[in-house]
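G., before I forget:
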Amino acid sequence: MSDASARKDTPAQAEFRAYCRDWLAANKPGEPPVRLPQTPLEIMTTEQLDYLQAWQKAAYDAGLVGCDYPEAVGGGGRKDCQRVANEEMLAARTPFFPNVIGLGMAAPTVFYHAQEAVKAELLPRLFSGEDIWCQGFSEPGAGSDLASVQTFAEKRGDRWVINGHKVWTSLAHFAEWMIILLRTDKSHKYDGLSYFVVPIRAALGNGVTVRPLIKITGETGFNEVIFDNLEVDDRYRLDELGKGWQVAMTTLLHERGAGELQTPRSGGMKNRSSHNITTSAVIELARQTRRGAGAAADDPLLRDKLMRQLIREEGLKQNQRRSRVQALLDHPMRLPLQNKLLASEIAQSIASLAVEVEGMASSLYMGDSNAPAGGQWPLSYMNSYGMTIAAGTSEVQRNILGERVLGLPKSK
Amino acid sequence: MTQPNNYGFGEEAALLKDSARKFFREHFPTDRLHALVAADPTPGRAPSCQWDEALWAQLVELGWTVLAVPEEAGGVGMPVAAVAGLVEEVGRAAFPCPLLGTLNATYVLVACGEAGAVGLADIAAGKAATLALTDRHGAWDPAATEVEYRDGGLYGTAWFVQDAGKCERLLVCASTGAGYGLFWVDAHAAGVTAEADGIVDLTRDQAHIVFDGASGIEVSGNALSALHQAMPAIWTLVAADMVGAGEWQLQTTVEYVSTRKQFDRPLGFFQAIKHPLVEVMVQIDEAKSLVYNAACACDSEPEKAAQYAHMAKASASDMAAYASSRSVQSHGGIGFTWECYVHLYFKRQKHSQMLWGDGVWHRARLADIVIGTAA
């Protein structure tokens, strides 16, 4: 894949690609000392975090993270090169970056909406992974209806005082900073929202409490965060007062893979217990799984299901390819806005099919030495609901597609 | 070989697609289609072939039937990806014409090598053609053909021949004793009798063709090999037609549910309507992306063409079924009537869904390639 893309490189991209390739050949990190989770959102221990942070720092120092951001904010000052670095990192099968929320959501939001001094203060340590970021959007009473958040910021002088309760906050237990959507005016639903970045680690025990939540898998990784009179400087407000909803749209657009700035992404490293959620992995599983007198891969009904998955997976890949061919597009947001919905639902159905292929053996979980693939498939299947629920549920995604692309009347 | 990132869908292809869309919008809006093909609703109506020959002649004049004919054979030699763009627009207009059949014959003739030149010359001269290779059971395997070639003539019947009433040439697959051959036959020659079928789809015609000693020019002594090479393009193009038709179904239905009010709100406000229509869009986009991927593979990654074309046709077949179902259902009572246009596309899509293999069949072939033949 990286060779096919390389043929379309500009001279600057080609030079950068060669540099990335050489650097990765010499500097790709060795085997992790601990078992890594399937995604950064399930990082549970400091051993896992230390290893991953060291990798992100090394990649940043080498210029592979934040390539397309200006140098003044700690970026590489390049043009359309993050994609190149990502392709090379994935091809080199690197570990993933731990600061995913920082890179994917906080960085573009801060970049487009913060004061210059704040960008220069925060972005370098975000890119390097020294500061982990988390996102404070959801609340007990504000899930799909995000604009109903109640956590309140009250102005006192040039400081803001924050009180309230955020939930489903991935990585908050390691995070220095949080992007947060707050209510600054109770009389307007949308225009009463403002957007801030807040230092939470510095305030632990002094205005901020982080409590872990346990997922259906038994893993931790997300949290609830309680604010009790946390004071924040006004310069950490992004954009104007009352513009929080618009700023949040920048975050969500990038979160769903539909934004302007390419998110730095690495991954692909084979880990003792990690596995790829792909149809080809399930086909391999079906070849190795006995069913009746033969292999599961010989069962005509399972073959049909496997091919359905393969087709959906290829379809998404080709959507991403077609989204760059202007002449084959009718509406500019039609494919980008499908990305999150499809990626999460396809991953879920692949994991679901793997569990079906495993049959009775899918009852065995990670603590059982007889579990196929160390119990990873039931784990992936359960974890997949995180993806179809977080960042706007599949149902919310369908509303957005129906309203913004098809032009159907709004539900709200 | 690898594929270009843009599917090889360049500026010329974009211009062609765009001008095709404008051509049909101007000359063949859906009310024209309805007036042309839907005059007789009687279920037991006699088989007929309703089409606008004058408009077809314009289309031939524009050179659209020779796009796939190689330059050295007097054609334009455009890539399959560009041709798919045109076919998508034909599907969107549901324009009754022998374009698909002619393109299908073109790809098979090209796969015949030098001997196919005689057929390509006819197509370059503006003659429409269609494939005749299906048995009475509608087998999607050409080796099932019931037509035989013996004593210098063709005997037997080819079934489910598409747009036969609009074509002047037939490309016939026949068993020869030594295997299978392909024969280029004048549709009006002695010993050729076309028996029109009474079909559901109003936008096409179909026939079974009885051969009784008809003569034909043998363009290949190894029909299965030539067909094997050409089928990926054929599957891809019928899928492209379905993508265009699916887009018409989506846009028409979206328009209806945005204006029709019940419970004081447009129907499209309700998620029971909105979400299925989004699903239709998602399925169209999947099929469309897979169509251009398959088309591009035909052009520049032939070793993967069959695999990708199976994906495209399987995806398009399932999409067509769902888009058709939602288009009628979401139109409610009016969608169930003859006067509402959605049934025209519903029927075209049901027809296309089965043409050259349905979803289940293509997935089974795909599995044989990807997983290997089942033990």
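The two ends of chain B are 31 Å apart (CA to CA). Chain B has a mean pLDDT of 97.

More on Monday.
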